[in-house]
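Quick one before lunch.
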Amino acid sequence: MRLIDSPADLQRLTRSLPRPVAFVPTMGALHRGHLALVTRAKEVAAGSGTTVVSVFVNPTQFGPNEDFQRYPRPFEQDCEKLAGLGCDLVFAPSAEAMYRPYASVIVHESSLSRTLCGASRPGHFDGVCTVVTKLFHLVQPDFAIFGQKDFQQLAIIRRLVRDLDFPVEIIGVPTVREADGLAMSSRNDYLSPEERAQAPILHQVLEAAATRVREKTVLSPDQLVKWMRAALEEAPLANIDYVAVADPETLEAKPTLTPPLVLAVAVYFGRTRLIDNTLLESIDG
Ligand code: PAF
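Model of the pantoate complex:
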């Protein structure tokens, strides 16, 4: 497995990489969710291609009061895990190498990023779109793999690729969960034992809400949101950021409960913000 930290070195090398190139952008602290993305990348690289993973805690997607400083950075363990999966190349630049002094160009998605996490984390998706654009230019992948846990991020990246004509196919991979249903996240490690015990409520409420939609025991998005809020509040340590019933394409609030729709939640446990979602593509699933 090759390790590169210089954007210029990577850009020089990219031209000669065996294709297809399958790329997984990460911020490191790799868990089984990330490893599922890398496994998918290996599949699409199909033996003769190249699997590239970036490990970069991107400062521009963190707000001033967010967890950039304390975000876990177990780089050696990450490299061991990636080597074990047969990853070909790891790109791990420093922030100084990625962002030049007085960098003044940002990539701004102006529609999908206004709601859900975008409303709670101003500027977050500008940071994501800018770094993903830079990474796509450096890696020049044929495929890029993202988790469906960050449903809004995936929708925005698909829009970025469509609107800016990146020759990259975006692949979404289902959320990997702990045995009790909690979605895998590097931020789960911040939870105290009491918070960790209550955190599976996100998935439980989403599943129960999806059943209510399928069985038509709720009639409107407003009624569903109200029910989900009350169910989440059953966990004493849960502090709701948002509960939404949205169109999976536009991410706007749905006026009816007719699928396709995405049920999405963001909940604080102490200072730790957890997100999860469930997609209903049709009334059966
Ligand atoms: O999902 C993430 O880990 C990050 O938002 C990403 C896509 C690696 C960009 O920094």
